[in-house]
Amino acid sequence: MGGGGAGSALAFLPDGAAVPLPLEPPPGPTAGELLRRLQGALRLPPRASEALALWLSSPLLEVQLKPRHRPLRLVRQWPELLLRFSLGSPGAIAQDEPSLQLRRNVFYPKGRELELEDEELLRLLYEEARGNVLGGRYPVDPPTGRSWGALVCRLRLGPFQPGQHTAPSLRPLLGELLPPPPGRGGLWGALLRRGPRAPPPEEGLLQAFARTPGPQAPPSELYRAFLSRCHPLPYYGCAFFPGAIERPPGGLLGRGAAGQGGGLRPVSVAVGLEGVTIIDPREKHVLLSLTFPELCWELVGVGGQEGDPPGGQEGDGAHEPPQLWLEFDGDHEGAPVNRLLRVFSPQAELMGALIECCIELGGTGESRGVTGRHWGVTGRHWGSLGSPSRPGRADGRPHECCIELGAEAPPGPAPPPGAPLRRQESVTRPRLQRLSTIDYVQDGQELRRVKPPRRSASFFGRGGGSYSPVSGGAGLEPG
Asked: How far apart are CA 54 and CA 295, in angstroms?
């Protein structure tokens, strides 16, 4: 945590600016106290304490702080946290240093953003969203990226002026105005890129810039317009975790080690109030997006879990990293099946903790306040920083159960069950064909696998919940 002089620390804003904050001797002030001081220094309205939160962030770990956390104490424990929740080498862990950052609160509902009127608060939210778009954390389609880039042009360059604002004048600024294009690299990308050559990106950006509001539009209106266009993204406002999933076996590039399928594909896992999204950070497109009513989840290989060997040790003595298992509906050759996807990540425990918090807030969080309910590094999922046990829910069910939200279904039409998969050009639409899942159906009292991959037996022996496996159908091979 960078120092701003004796007895002070630097808090970094989404636009990169740093604000010095006074610190008392150890254990130091709480995150809630520091947020209030920062709120006063920036002259933010009272609602800023709900929309924003303090984070400790480094290349190896990002954590939103609870109001009662003491950042100085956590900074001293940072190497210990990295040993548990990262794959960094000893040298990288020794050199890693977190910074104190002001960011959007993961538990702040999207709808309440549009009710904000303070220009500085809207600007901070805009700067964070813009950074995530330009940095590639939020995959967007090129047409959407141009519309967002046009708003960035309007805020940065002022109202559009014909003759003054031209395509050549925008070309040097493209890296600061447009998000990176979706990836389709390598030999296959070259083979798939066909058709007429696309016009230069600055030409499309200039056309979109010419359609932006004129000088009568205040900055707060432009900030709000940018944020509202981010809201349809399922990963907007989420916390992001590094992970890996198994590649589908087969093909020229799909051969891993013996018995290991197609190897592992690095992914980013976005968890927020509405659900879970799996993103390919290299190709910058969505692989899977599920709302909480559409999924079941379970932690496997995490110490302290009932029925799991300690440290992720399997029966054959092999060691695997902790895993987050996701179960959802799918289809196999037109027949409905249940699918299991496992995500390997040293931060799987943190994903599960955040999922549980979001479920307890009611899926979307719109019906509850966000003050006093923060996901952070303490609690039962953080070992020495809290209780290591995994108690059941209030109704006696274990946490490894299916999610039941009743009428809390998200808005918008749901896809018809068993609909055939189609090629999707949008980067925000899931590419299920690129997932290596375990597909199974229930036939009477038995489960039949569509494929014979490795699996976690705990999914097939649990009870409770309202989620029921689909029945077996024609064309499915017995396990």
From this structure: 30
